């Protein structure tokens, strides 16, 4: 089943608990939390305190995407805050195997992230060790960007590698996802769709989520 993970980066920061609860009630599968440190990407968003603050508002998996330098230093903070899934950029982690292992040892699902300009084969060394691969379909750092069609080729390559090895690994996509681009990603092999603006610009969150899912 295709999962939809609304990105709270596009939500109302002044009432984030209610926003998360509304996404839960509207049929979201995961809640996506974009963490930026002002180093790996220019903006600064929020940290483990946000995860801790929204945890009481939903039982859905909290999916944390670390856009930070030295992500291995953040694992314990997010585990203690209540995160369920933690993904790190292959471009940011000097010791990727060790970082992935540490995430799983902390009891969370482990994901790795590929920028649009990073080839799919960069995921291969740890593909059997992760729970999901997040393919960025925009350059990370800012919400509301346009979808990069060239990223579809990476999704197809990831799907081929996963299927060839018969691995239970999801492919998540994030960036410029709307009902049209979502279906393009699903056709290419994606199974988890992160959407921000396309969900929160609509008054009816349930309708928006269903449309992203292709229903």
From TrEMBL:
Catalytic activity annotation: D-ribulose 5-phosphate = D-xylulose 5-phosphate
Names of required cofactors: a divalent metal cation; Fe(2+); Mn(2+); Co(2+)
Listed Pfam families: Ribul_P_3_epim
EC number from the UniProt entry: 5.1.3.1
Keyword Transferase among record annotations: no
Database matches in Gene3D superfamilies: Aldolase class I
Span of the signal peptide: none
Cellular component GO terms, alphabetical: cytoplasm
Residues at the catalytic site: 34, 174
Record text on cofactor binding: Binds 1 divalent metal cation per subunit.
Stored InterPro entries: Aldolase_TIM, Ribul_P_3_epim, Ribul_P_3_epim-like, RibuloseP-bd_barrel
Pathway: Carbohydrate degradation
Function of the molecule: Catalyzes the reversible epimerization of D-ribulose 5-phosphate to D-xylulose 5-phosphate.
Assigned protein family: Belongs to the ribulose-phosphate 3-epimerase family.
NCBIfam families, sorted: PRK05581.1-4 (NF004076), rpe (TIGR01163)
Protein name: Ribulose-phosphate 3-epimerase
Origin species: Shouchella clausii (strain KSM-K16)
């Amino acid at each position: 089943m295709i999962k939809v993970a609304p990105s709270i980066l596009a939500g109302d920061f002044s009432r984030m608990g209610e926003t998360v609860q509304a996404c839960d009630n509207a049929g979201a599968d995961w809640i996506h939390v974009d963490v930026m440190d002002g180093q790996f990407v220019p903006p600064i968003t929020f940290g483990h305190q946000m995860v801790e603050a929204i945890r009481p508002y939903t039982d859905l998996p909290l999916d944390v995407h670390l856009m930070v330098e030295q992500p291995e230093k953040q694992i314990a903070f997010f585990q203690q805050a209540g995160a369920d899934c933690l993904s790190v950029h292959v471009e940011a982690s000097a010791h990727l195997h060790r970082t992935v292992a540490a995430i799983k040892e902390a009891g969370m699902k482990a994901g790795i992230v590929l920028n649009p300009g990073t080839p799919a084969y960069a995921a291969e060394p740890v593909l059997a060790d992760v729970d999901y691969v997040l393919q960025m379909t925009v350059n990370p750092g800012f919400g509301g960007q346009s979808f990069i069609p060239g990223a579809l080729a990476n999704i197809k390559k990831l799907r081929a590698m996963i299927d060839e090895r018969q691995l239970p690994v999801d492919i998540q996509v994030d960036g410029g996802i709307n009902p049209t681009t979502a279906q393009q990603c699903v056709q290419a092999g994606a199974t988890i769709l992160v959407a921000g603006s396309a969900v929160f610009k609509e008054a009816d969150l349930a309708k928006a989520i269903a449309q992203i899912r292709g229903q």
